Amino acid sequence: MYSGDSKIKKKVTFVLAAAGQGKRMNLNSPKQFLDYKGEPLFYSSLKIAFDNKYIDDIIIVTNKENLNFMVKYCQDKNLFSKVKYIVEGGSERQYSIYNAIKKIENTDIVIIQDAARPFLKDKYIEESIKILDNDCDGAIIGVKCKDTIKIIDKNGMILETPNRDNLIMVHTPQTFKFQILKKAHQMAEKKNILATDDASLVEMISGKVRFINGDYDNIKITVQEDLKFLK
User: Fold this and answer.
1) Which residues does the chain have with pLDDT short of 50?
2) Is 208:136 a contact under the CB 8 Å cutoff?
């Protein structure tokens, strides 16, 4: 199937990044396995991807110690019609995504979603894929900064106040043409570059990435205070 019954005739692979350790949460297990509406937190995004008509294949990246759990979970939920691989993650998020990329044999577009960001919407997927049909290599969901931003030095002294109209807070999903994403990760491996998101790597090889205005409720569960959004 190529993007369901839509006019977008592209094969789309969805990568769910579920290998985080959740160190900032001080929990006994990774945050993506927190209970949310009676299911593990990662299932919220996984279900959206599974049901979405544009997505053909799904690859899940998770911690080594949770591989067996994830396989059984997908079996119990009958998800293997779309879930093609469950891959062991790396020591950093970037390495985890690259492990998934190396499993992809044939696709046009790759969508990357953080498992700890449970409020994925179908509109993000559709808008991102459609934008890639135009003159850009990637699309990222985000929101414009509401607060004034300050740049400080290591001593906490303010150096600069950039114009917040040109600043965004970056979310997932992040969507890319597969070949340029693969090239970006290969370059990062060769040059030993570590970035905080995939768009940064694509930018480094002069890829054109466009911002799509998302929603402020598309938060990532990162610190203890974020748990209130799951209630």
Assistant:
1) 1, 4-6
2) yes
